[in-house]
Design goal:
The protein has about 300 residues and is an alpha/beta fold. Helix content is about 40%, strand content about 25%. Helix 2 packs across helix 3 (about 30-45) and helix 5 crosses helix 9. The chain is globular, with a radius of gyration of 23 Å.
Length: about 300
């Protein structure tokens, strides 16, 4: 008899959502051969094929499309029931996998761990550091429950909330006459040796669009994909970087100087995003609320 609580059905949902046996194996941290065997066994039990292979992965057969919504709904109900039973005492319980940006790790991870340990002792944190692009990819794969991400636009995305909005600054050497000022005009970036993340990147696209609109040319001297790398190159005299104001806070002011970019003023948002591949639990809701509370004091900005 087929049981919806059989772990093979969870694999079926994961493979469907990711469209690939390889991606599902990565997300679940299991060998791809195990996924293949489990799906094969499930198809034999059903007496019908669930997937057909394409050049880019797998897609559902007609039979698979017919049963997928019902299977997913039943698994979500089972997960919710399991969480309700485990948290019947009213106390959050279980593992929460949270992604953190490199720029907030030093100031955020310690206080967050201590706050969770004090307020929710039965919650086990699993913290992961990565770039915004990496973290969002892992979130979409279901490898993370929650993650702080960067947004270079003001568009709302499903399952996320803005926890901080920050102005962008131009940073340069300590005694640089341009960045020692309080502000710098966007048009003054023309011709400067800039240290920017490599393409494709939302900040690069945004800067390129503004430069084209204002008919100026930006000079990308070095591509560096992390704030730490960008700051290090600036300190070494390799050019100017554009970073969010909070990233400046932990750094000794003698290492570089910073001027807010104006006309137009540039800003960036830090958002807390939630995976859409599984329902919220009491534990993830508790940690989400705590992250938002701590962000108001630990993430500086406007």
């Amino acid at each position: 008899m087929l049981s919806i609580l059989d772990s093979k059905w969870t694999l079926f949902v994961k493979v469907t959502e990711l469209g690939s046996l390889t991606h599902a194996a990565t997300a679940l941290n299991v060998p791809q051969s195990l996924i293949s065997r489990q799906i094969g066994a499930l198809e034999r039990e059903c007496g019908a094929h669930l997937f057909r292979r394409t050049g880019r992965g797998v897609v559902l057969t007609d039979f698979g499309q017919q049963i997928f919504p019902r299977v997913k709904a039943l698994i979500a109900q089972a997960d919710q029931l399991s969480d309700d039973i485990r948290t019947s005492s009213g106390e959050p319980l279980g593992e929460v996998r949270l992604g953190l940006l490199p720029s907030v790790v030093l100031t955020f991870s310690g206080p967050l761990y201590c706050a969770v340990a004090k307020r929710f002792p039965r919650v086990r944190l699993h913290l992961t550091e990565g770039s915004s692009v990496q973290l969002e990819d892992w979130l979409n794969q279901g490898r993370l429950d929650l993650s702080l991400l960067l947004r270079e636009d003001d568009l709302d995305h499903p399952g996320e909330v803005t926890v901080r909005k920050m102005s962008l600054s131009l940073i340069g050497p300590p005694n640089d006459p341009l960045t020692r000022q309080a502000t710098v005009q966007f048009d003054q970036l023309a011709g400067l040796p800039l240290v920017l993340p490599g393409e494709p990147h939302l900040l690069r696209a945004r800067l390129n669009a503004l430069a084209m609109q204002r008919q100026i040319k930006l000079n990308v001297a070095v591509e560096a994909d992390s704030i730490g790398l960008q700051e290090a190159i600036v300190v070494a005299g390799g050019g100017y970087a554009i970073i969010a104001a909070p990233a400046l806070a932990p750094e000794p002011s003698s290492r570089f100087s910073a001027a807010s970019i104006v006309n137009p003023q540039l800003s960036r948002r830090v958002v807390l995003s939630t995976t859409l591949l599984r329902p919220h639990t009491m534990a993830t809701r508790a940690v989400s609320t705590l992250v938002q509370e701590l962000s108001t004091t630990l993430l500086q900005g406007e």
